[in-house]
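Why does residue order matter? Because the sequence determines the fold. Keep that principle in mind as you read this record.
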Amino acid sequence: MDELSQPGEHVKTERMTAFTDGVVAIIITIMVLELKVPESADLKGLLGAAPILAAYVLSYINVGLYWNNHHHLLQTADHIDGRSLWANLFLLFWLSLVPFVIRWIDEAGFVALPVAAYGFVLGLSGASYLWLQREIIRVNGGPDSHLARALGPDWKGRLSLAGYTVATIAAFFAPRLAIAVYVVIACIWLIPDRRIERRLTDSA
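Structure:
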């Protein structure tokens, strides 16, 4: 048993950061390797590969957004504990399934179950991130911590989770509508969120 199994024991964040960076890099590499080259060397072949390439781009953006937000999250943390590590592992588990669902969509097409599975994976990734946020806040000062004050009720995260839930259900009736919702959520998160940066600047 390591030191994290001891109640109340805290450690620095560097190990979590390094491990997360490595796993995210592997996830992105697998996504690239799963891409199929066009079947012919003309525009028709390229257009045929466009849908799965678009799915890759959306997935790359989503994984990148989690990595970016994870970086800002740990900027506010002085230490973590075992519960934080498990929350982080849960997040990485769901992100690691993104290449799987992309390949499923590639082979089955943009049909109900694969598209719903894509939303399910992204939704559970979002829920895992909210859990990680809560654990980081708990172990670094609770409701009075810089992170808790910066995020407030975090309506952006909760509304995104609700959007994934609705889109996952909608995928069984209108897969294209579900994909549109996934794109909209990603676009919302692409808008720079300065809450944590402003809080860190004000507290400096």
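The CA atoms of residues 53 and 113 lie 19 Å apart.
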